[in-house]
């Protein structure tokens, strides 16, 4: 009988691993369980669905269940939830949510791709209606449906991580009055140094978002969000406080957990039990600069780690080298990106740091379309090794972070970065690329 792979979770991690395993081993019997209504969707596209740039949720689906069934011979079971895993018996308990029946499914190999869940703060009234986090496309559709049904006028976004920022902008464009409440003094405070994060404050307010930084939420009541400075009207509350790994199923099964409760995996994405693999938002990964295990919930990482899991499930051999912590977003026309470690993260990892923040322009400053941009480079004080970079600026600024991400992967010093033969013509850049300008200034301090 063919070996059976059971996959739990039908989005980026689950289906990328399943597809890769199928490619490697045509004989595998693959069953994928997804409790929601769509497979392989782009949760990253949800803000653009809310804003109206994307017409239908189906446009965000890369591959439907039928495509997986027909083209990849994967037995995709929609609205099927894995409710327990028995690692000794090697079975998964499955609940068919449509027909309300429960059955067991045996496996030889198991791939866990259960993703993450939005953090819900333990505050009075948090279980009230219309307080929503967003992780899956079903969450996004439910939120949009609710906003339409309520003819929602006032939206309060709690937290200002990248999902909070993107959802705030989306609801402004949807037509709501948006208030953002953030306990820290600036947005994305875990990702950006304070001097860089400060540049975002103006951008957030620029679109008409009533951004309350340094103000914590104290509780919720129907139609109201309470903060220290009084109640705010809210037809809908969007939680943007980050996510936690969805690892309850794995934990209850007895799989070893790691950072922030994510599933511990080795470099092959193997868990603590042979033949059981995990990848994506539910799994731990490794930071190549801090050399520490971390939990990072990004689609880029989910796809890459799942590919590695799929190769190994299919009988190949592949290892994931880890991440350097690269992320990018756009807030109200201002682009933001970061890679490596922030100053605080670098110091926590034991590095003595030097840094430089430079103000420059996205293209040659004398051209009419030139827009301001700020680049911060962080290096190790004695060796000059690049440790991190952050960028905030106008159109064309943020994607330059990829040069720094590449330099981090190659463990370059800031001098190495200065010497890179990067492209230049006035419509694209200043003579020295902004990344190199920042590297050059910090090199002078090493
Ligand atoms: C609004 C938003 C914007 C984003 N923007 C970006 C971006 O710009 N760039 C970026 O890199 N990342 C972005 N992300 C993050 C990215 O979407 C996630 O990192 C990615 O979706 C993770 O994929 P995953 O497969 O690990 O988890 P998920 O996408 O969460 O998928 C897990 C799936 O498993 C299912 N599931 C869970 N438990 C069970 C169970 N017990 N049984 C059956 N099914 C189960 C869930 O229903 C879900 O469909 C964004 C996320 C959001 C919400």
TrEMBL record:
Cofactor: FAD
Superkingdom, natural source: Bacteria
Stretches assigned to the FAD/NAD(P)-binding domain: 4-288
GO MF: oxidoreductase activity
InterPro entries named in the record: FAD-bd_OxRdtase (IPR050260), FAD/NAD-bd_sf (IPR036188), FAD/NAD-binding_dom (IPR023753), FAD/NAD-linked_Rdtase_dimer_sf (IPR016156), Pyr_nucl-diS_OxRdtase_dimer (IPR004099)
Keyword Flavoprotein assigned: yes
Domain Pyridine nucleotide-disulphide oxidoreductase dimerisation: 328-432
Keywords, in A-Z order: FAD, Flavoprotein, Oxidoreductase, Redox-active center
Family per record: Belongs to the class-III pyridine nucleotide-disulfide oxidoreductase family.
Protein name per Swiss-Prot or TrEMBL: FAD-dependent oxidoreductase
